[in-house]
Amino acid sequence: xxxxxxxxxxxPVEDGFGVLLDGKSVKTPxxxxxxxxxxxxxxxxxxxxxxQGEEVVAxxxxxxxxxxxxxxxxxxxxxxxxxxxxxxxxxxxxxxxTDHPAELVxxxxxxxxxxxxxxxxxxxxxxxxxxxxxxxxxxxxxxxALREPLAGLDAFALAGLHVVASVTGSLVLxxxxxxxxxxxxRAFELSRIDEAYQAEKWGEDAEAVKRASALAxxxxxxxxxxxxxxxx
Length: 232
Prior knowledge:
Strand content: 5-15%
Order of helices and strands: EEEEHHHEHEHHHHHH
Distance between the termini: 32 Å
CATH superfamily of the largest domain: ATP12 ATPase
Mean pLDDT: 96
Number of helices: 10
Radius of gyration: 20 Å
Protein backbone atom coordinates (compact mmCIF):
# COMPACT_ATOMS: atom_id res chain seq x y z
CA UNK A 1 0.00 0.00 0.00
CA UNK A 2 1.03 3.60 -0.48
CA UNK A 3 2.77 5.32 2.40
CA UNK A 4 0.06 7.33 4.14
CA UNK A 5 2.05 9.03 6.92
CA UNK A 6 4.95 11.45 7.35
CA UNK A 7 5.95 11.45 11.01
CA UNK A 8 6.74 8.39 13.12
CA UNK A 9 7.13 8.67 16.88
CA UNK A 10 7.09 6.68 20.12
CA UNK A 11 5.01 7.65 23.13
CA PRO A 12 4.15 6.18 26.53
CA VAL A 13 0.69 4.61 26.64
CA GLU A 14 -1.19 2.64 29.25
CA ASP A 15 0.76 -0.55 30.07
CA GLY A 16 3.72 0.28 27.82
CA PHE A 17 4.76 2.21 24.75
CA GLY A 18 3.02 2.88 21.46
CA VAL A 19 4.11 3.74 17.92
CA LEU A 20 2.38 6.78 16.41
CA LEU A 21 1.99 7.60 12.74
CA ASP A 22 1.22 11.31 12.37
CA GLY A 23 0.13 11.23 16.01
CA LYS A 24 -2.23 8.26 15.64
CA SER A 25 -1.62 4.93 17.36
CA VAL A 26 -0.70 1.97 15.17
CA LYS A 27 -3.25 -0.83 15.27
CA THR A 28 -2.66 -4.56 14.81
CA PRO A 29 -4.46 -6.54 12.09
CA UNK A 30 -6.86 -7.62 14.86
CA UNK A 31 -7.62 -3.91 15.53
CA UNK A 32 -5.88 -3.92 18.88
CA UNK A 33 -3.66 -0.98 19.77
CA UNK A 34 0.00 -1.82 19.32
CA UNK A 35 1.19 -1.64 22.95
CA UNK A 36 4.79 -2.70 23.46
CA UNK A 37 6.42 -3.62 26.77
CA UNK A 38 9.63 -1.56 26.39
CA UNK A 39 10.60 1.71 24.81
CA UNK A 40 13.47 -0.02 23.01
CA UNK A 41 11.10 -2.39 21.21
CA UNK A 42 8.77 0.48 20.34
CA UNK A 43 11.71 2.46 18.93
CA UNK A 44 12.86 -0.50 16.82
CA UNK A 45 9.38 -0.95 15.35
CA UNK A 46 9.07 2.79 14.79
CA UNK A 47 12.33 2.60 12.83
CA UNK A 48 10.80 -0.09 10.60
CA UNK A 49 7.90 2.25 9.80
CA UNK A 50 10.27 5.16 9.25
CA UNK A 51 12.42 3.17 6.82
CA GLN A 52 9.51 2.44 4.47
CA GLY A 53 9.62 4.18 1.11
CA GLU A 54 6.71 5.31 -1.05
CA GLU A 55 5.22 1.83 -0.65
CA VAL A 56 4.67 0.23 2.75
CA VAL A 57 5.88 -3.37 2.57
CA ALA A 58 4.71 -5.49 5.50
CA UNK A 59 7.37 -8.15 4.92
CA UNK A 60 10.02 -5.47 5.44
CA UNK A 61 8.83 -4.98 9.05
CA UNK A 62 9.58 -8.32 10.77
CA UNK A 63 9.52 -6.95 14.32
CA UNK A 64 6.11 -5.42 13.72
CA UNK A 65 4.78 -8.70 12.35
CA UNK A 66 6.08 -10.59 15.38
CA UNK A 67 4.59 -8.01 17.76
CA UNK A 68 1.24 -8.29 15.96
CA UNK A 69 1.37 -12.05 16.40
CA UNK A 70 2.12 -11.65 20.10
CA UNK A 71 -0.78 -9.26 20.66
CA UNK A 72 -3.43 -10.77 18.40
CA UNK A 73 -2.52 -14.45 18.71
CA UNK A 74 -0.30 -15.42 21.60
CA UNK A 75 -1.99 -13.28 24.25
CA UNK A 76 -5.30 -15.06 23.78
CA UNK A 77 -3.77 -18.55 23.42
CA UNK A 78 -0.94 -18.69 25.95
CA UNK A 79 -1.45 -22.31 26.98
CA UNK A 80 -1.67 -23.56 23.39
CA UNK A 81 1.48 -21.66 22.44
CA UNK A 82 3.40 -22.98 25.45
CA UNK A 83 2.25 -26.51 24.61
CA UNK A 84 3.40 -26.03 21.01
CA UNK A 85 6.82 -24.81 22.13
CA UNK A 86 7.16 -27.70 24.58
CA UNK A 87 6.56 -30.21 21.77
CA UNK A 88 9.93 -29.20 20.33
CA UNK A 89 11.44 -30.32 23.62
CA UNK A 90 9.64 -33.64 23.44
CA UNK A 91 11.42 -34.35 20.14
CA UNK A 92 14.40 -32.03 20.41
CA UNK A 93 16.88 -31.91 17.54
CA UNK A 94 19.87 -32.10 19.86
CA UNK A 95 18.63 -35.41 21.31
CA UNK A 96 18.64 -37.25 17.98
CA UNK A 97 22.06 -38.38 16.83
CA THR A 98 23.34 -40.26 13.83
CA ASP A 99 25.41 -43.41 14.35
CA HIS A 100 27.51 -42.84 11.23
CA PRO A 101 29.69 -41.51 9.69
CA ALA A 102 32.13 -40.99 12.54
CA GLU A 103 32.95 -37.42 11.50
CA LEU A 104 29.31 -36.32 11.71
CA VAL A 105 28.87 -38.18 14.99
CA UNK A 106 31.82 -36.23 16.39
CA UNK A 107 30.43 -32.90 15.14
CA UNK A 108 27.03 -33.54 16.72
CA UNK A 109 28.64 -34.50 20.03
CA UNK A 110 30.90 -31.44 20.02
CA UNK A 111 28.05 -29.09 19.17
CA UNK A 112 25.15 -30.57 21.10
CA UNK A 113 26.55 -32.26 24.21
CA UNK A 114 27.42 -28.89 25.81
CA UNK A 115 23.81 -27.78 25.20
CA UNK A 116 22.48 -30.79 27.08
CA UNK A 117 24.90 -30.08 29.92
CA UNK A 118 23.74 -26.46 29.95
CA UNK A 119 20.00 -27.22 30.03
CA UNK A 120 20.54 -29.79 32.80
CA UNK A 121 22.49 -27.30 34.92
CA UNK A 122 20.46 -24.17 34.11
CA UNK A 123 16.94 -25.63 34.10
CA UNK A 124 17.29 -29.05 35.76
CA UNK A 125 16.18 -30.80 32.57
CA UNK A 126 18.13 -34.03 32.03
CA UNK A 127 17.35 -35.21 28.53
CA UNK A 128 17.63 -38.65 26.98
CA UNK A 129 19.49 -39.08 23.69
CA UNK A 130 18.63 -41.46 20.84
CA UNK A 131 21.02 -42.97 18.31
CA UNK A 132 20.14 -43.81 14.71
CA UNK A 133 16.47 -43.98 13.85
CA UNK A 134 15.30 -44.81 17.36
CA UNK A 135 12.74 -42.62 19.14
CA UNK A 136 13.27 -41.61 22.74
CA UNK A 137 10.63 -40.37 25.18
CA UNK A 138 11.70 -37.61 27.53
CA UNK A 139 10.86 -38.27 31.22
CA UNK A 140 7.88 -36.39 32.66
CA UNK A 141 10.15 -34.59 35.13
CA UNK A 142 12.31 -33.38 32.23
CA UNK A 143 9.30 -31.99 30.37
CA UNK A 144 8.08 -30.32 33.57
CA ALA A 145 11.50 -28.69 33.98
CA LEU A 146 11.41 -27.47 30.37
CA ARG A 147 7.92 -26.03 30.82
CA GLU A 148 8.83 -24.05 33.94
CA PRO A 149 10.80 -21.24 32.25
CA LEU A 150 8.00 -20.79 29.70
CA ALA A 151 5.27 -20.20 32.26
CA GLY A 152 6.44 -16.73 33.31
CA LEU A 153 7.08 -15.31 29.84
CA ASP A 154 4.95 -12.58 28.32
CA ALA A 155 3.34 -12.87 24.89
CA PHE A 156 6.27 -11.17 23.13
CA ALA A 157 8.92 -13.52 24.50
CA LEU A 158 6.68 -16.51 23.76
CA ALA A 159 6.13 -15.35 20.19
CA GLY A 160 9.87 -15.01 19.63
CA LEU A 161 10.66 -18.27 21.39
CA HIS A 162 8.17 -20.18 19.25
CA VAL A 163 9.89 -18.92 16.10
CA VAL A 164 13.35 -19.87 17.39
CA ALA A 165 12.18 -23.35 18.38
CA SER A 166 10.38 -23.81 15.05
CA VAL A 167 13.39 -22.75 12.95
CA THR A 168 15.91 -24.82 14.92
CA GLY A 169 13.69 -27.76 15.80
CA SER A 170 14.96 -27.43 19.35
CA LEU A 171 13.55 -26.07 22.59
CA VAL A 172 17.01 -26.41 24.12
CA LEU A 173 18.47 -24.03 21.52
CA UNK A 174 15.50 -21.69 21.97
CA UNK A 175 16.13 -21.54 25.72
CA UNK A 176 19.81 -20.66 25.16
CA UNK A 177 18.65 -17.69 23.08
CA UNK A 178 16.06 -16.73 25.69
CA UNK A 179 18.72 -16.76 28.42
CA UNK A 180 21.21 -14.94 26.19
CA UNK A 181 23.58 -17.92 26.50
CA UNK A 182 23.85 -18.04 22.69
CA UNK A 183 23.21 -15.53 19.94
CA UNK A 184 20.50 -16.25 17.43
CA UNK A 185 23.16 -16.71 14.75
CA ARG A 186 25.06 -19.28 16.82
CA ALA A 187 21.86 -21.17 17.67
CA PHE A 188 21.02 -21.34 13.97
CA GLU A 189 24.52 -22.58 13.16
CA LEU A 190 24.26 -25.34 15.76
CA SER A 191 20.88 -26.40 14.37
CA ARG A 192 22.45 -26.87 10.92
CA ILE A 193 25.30 -29.26 11.73
CA ASP A 194 23.84 -32.02 9.55
CA GLU A 195 23.09 -29.66 6.64
CA ALA A 196 26.58 -28.12 6.80
CA TYR A 197 28.18 -31.55 6.72
CA GLN A 198 26.12 -32.63 3.71
CA ALA A 199 26.94 -29.39 1.87
CA GLU A 200 30.64 -29.97 2.45
CA LYS A 201 30.41 -33.50 1.07
CA TRP A 202 28.03 -33.00 -1.85
CA GLY A 203 28.06 -29.28 -2.57
CA GLU A 204 25.57 -26.52 -1.86
CA ASP A 205 22.19 -26.21 -3.54
CA ALA A 206 21.33 -22.62 -4.44
CA GLU A 207 17.69 -22.93 -3.39
CA ALA A 208 18.65 -24.56 -0.10
CA VAL A 209 21.11 -21.75 0.60
CA LYS A 210 18.40 -19.19 -0.12
CA ARG A 211 15.94 -20.93 2.22
CA ALA A 212 18.58 -21.18 4.95
CA SER A 213 19.35 -17.48 4.65
CA ALA A 214 15.68 -16.60 5.02
CA LEU A 215 15.35 -18.85 8.08
CA ALA A 216 18.47 -17.37 9.65
CA UNK A 217 17.04 -13.88 9.22
CA UNK A 218 13.70 -14.97 10.70
CA UNK A 219 15.45 -16.46 13.72
CA UNK A 220 17.64 -13.38 14.15
CA UNK A 221 14.59 -11.10 14.28
CA UNK A 222 12.83 -13.40 16.74
CA UNK A 223 15.90 -13.29 18.98
CA UNK A 224 15.94 -9.50 18.65
CA UNK A 225 12.28 -9.33 19.67
CA UNK A 226 12.96 -11.44 22.76
CA UNK A 227 15.83 -9.22 23.84
CA UNK A 228 14.09 -5.90 23.15
CA UNK A 229 10.87 -6.98 24.86
CA UNK A 230 12.52 -8.12 28.07
CA UNK A 231 14.99 -5.36 28.80
CA UNK A 232 13.95 -1.72 29.07
